[in-house]
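Below is a filled-in request sheet from our internal design queue. Each sheet records the structural input a requester submitted and the sequence that came back. We keep these sheets so that new team members can see what a complete request looks like end to end.

REQUESTER: design group, bay 2
PRIORITY: normal
MODE: inverse folding
CHAIN LENGTH: 62
BACKBONE (tokenized):
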């Protein structure tokens, strides 16, 4: 998968405890997903989530 400029996106995964939130509380799921990747991949932005993959865009240089 590529971003809108054709650059490849990073594919990553996260723990099941966050995925479980997706069925219970969608807003909390989004919040926890963003927080998880903000700590582990500073400067990267969550673009798309499709179990079990999370696609991230590199925004460190912009």
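RETURNED SEQUENCE:
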């Amino acid at each position: 998968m590529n971003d809108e400029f054709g650059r490849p996106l990073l594919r990553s995964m996260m723990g099941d405890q966050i995925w479980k939130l997706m069925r219970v509380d969608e807003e909390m799921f989004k919040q926890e997903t963003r927080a998880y990747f903000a700590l582990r991949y500073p400067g990267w932005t969550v673009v798309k989530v499709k179990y079990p993959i999370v696609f991230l865009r590199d925004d460190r240089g912009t």
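SHEET NOTES:
- The chain has one domain: 10-58.
- The helical segments are 16-24, 26-40.
FILED BY: M.R.
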